[in-house]
Design goal:
With 405 residues, the chain is of the alpha/beta class. It contains 15 helices and 13 strands. The two termini are 31 Å apart. The structure holds pyridoxal-5'-phosphate.
């Protein structure tokens, strides 16, 4: 992977130039091949779908190819994939679609570790008598432990919502273990994979998720989101599109339809990952996609190790979350606080040196409040992805050392 980095970086036009963007959990750079697909769709088949003329048929095929690409990024499970403008929008849509099947006294569990996108839309269902419970984060390792969920489950639990990975502290949670617990009481599991999907391959069905959503603009694509739904969960969701579209498959959960050119552009994302894997050495029985994700995880772990080692050696710095770079435990989204300094003070000083990081709660408000970090203006977050180089981490470290060392 290290040897391929120049080739990899050349695929992302936004990486040209000197500014060092370490805010990838906010949004990654987009592949040049995705930009080309979008432009080509607009140039060659920007017509209305569903007509009999040739160009309309081509346009449908191009969008279907994009939809298949998004399904493949979610693991090609047996259920449908729905698409929306963002994860936030998709979750609002799904909450609206679930609402008619909920009765007063039914229960929904949301977590303290989650971005508000996977909390607020569900919590609003309290307005129709649903009981909303909060799954507390385990304070030592900042993990969502199954033991913390167990007392919240009951025969009335309809849905448990959790994040696969924290967008603030980068911890990976054990979705498969939670899925078994949730299913044992007859409830559904909805997973926010937004902070996970840029770093690891996803197989939503194999994890046992009934819903799994991610934001495509953080996985090298355009500003869209996609969600996998298990067949059983999908069947429970009401039509939120025009009344005559109740039998229109996934379209019944996509009011207004999808943005054609952006979805068509997504066809290039799995192609990129497969090409990356094909160029890497590895056992023949492991397919190119899995090889790519394995190499990405190993490279990201090395980047994390470099930064975490530096931060551990700074007496004024406290890493918030896991201090170990292990790829099974975390992704390279690393947050910290500095004693005697508000988190808002640091990013402008790094920006003056051409380095882009951010501070704040990143909309994981309950987490930042639970950690008592509101008065500190939250955390400073450095978020890396596979196209980052070790020398970029070194550049960040050199800029940080005189400020926090
Ligand atoms: C973990 C997580 N979930 C959800 C969201 C919301 O995604 P979107 O901007 O697509 O609504 C974000 C955005 O940063 C996020 O990090």
């Amino acid at each position: 992977m290290q040897r391929s980095l120049d080739r990899i970086r050349a695929r992302f036009p936004g990486l040209a130039g000197d500014e060092l963007l370490l805010d990838n959990a906010g949004g990654s750079q987009i592949l040049g091949s995705v930009i080309d697909e979008i432009a080509d769709y607009l140039r060659s088949c920007n017509v209305q779908h569903g007509a009999s003329y040739a160009r309309s048929r081509v346009a449908v095929e191009r969008v279907l190819a994009g939809e298949r690409a998004l399904a493949s990024l979610l693991g090609d499970g047996p259920g449908p994939v729905i698409i929306g403008s963002s994860t936030t929008q998709l979750v609002f849509n799904l909450a609206a679609a679930l609402a008619p099947s909920l009765r007063p006294g039914d229960e929904i569990v949301v977590s303290e570790a989650d971005h508000e996108a996977n909390v607020g839309a569900w919590a609003r269902l309290a307005g129709q008598g649903v009981v909303v419970r909060s799954w507390p984060i385990e304070r030592e390792r900042l993990r969502l432990e199954p033991a913390g969920l167990a007392p919240l489950l009951s025969a009335r639990t309809r849905l448990v919502c959790m994040t696969h990975c924290s967008n603030v502290v980068g911890t990976i949670h054990d979705v498969a273990a939670v899925a078994d617990m949730v299913h044992s009481v007859g409830a559904r599991l909805f997973v926010d994979g937004v902070a996970y999907a840029p770093h690891r391959g996803v197989d939503a069905a194999a994890l046992g998720a009934d819903g799994y959503v991610f934001s495509v603009y953080k996985v090298y694509g355009p500003h869209l989101a996609a969600a996998y739904l298990s067949p059983g969960f999908f069947a429970e969701l009401a039509n939120i599109n025009h009344h005559f579209l109740a039998d229109a498959g996934a379209y019944r959960l996509e009011p207004g339809g999808v943005c054609y050119e952006l979805v068509a552009g997504c066809a290039a994302i799995p192609r990129y990952l497969d090409e990356l894997g094909e160029a890497l050495d590895g056992p023949a029985e492991v397919g190119p996609r899995a090889r790519a994700w394995a190499a990405i995880a190993a490279h990201e772990e090395a980047l994390s190790a470099r930064l975490l080692e530096f931060l551990a050696a700074c007496p004024r710095v406290r890493v918030v979350g896991e201090t170990c770079p292990d790829r099974q435990v975390r992704v390279p989204t690393i947050s910290f606080v500095v004693a005697g300094m508000r988190s808002s003070e640091l990013p402008p000083r790094l920006a003056a040196q051409g380095i882009g990081v951010r501070f704040g709660d990143f909309y994981a408000r309950a987490l930042i409040d639970r950690l008592g970090l509101r008065a500190q203006d939250g955390v400073v977050r450095v978020s890396l992805v596979h196209y980052n180089r070790a020398d970029e981490v070194d550049r960040l470290i050199a800029a940080l050392a005189p400020i926090v060392g």
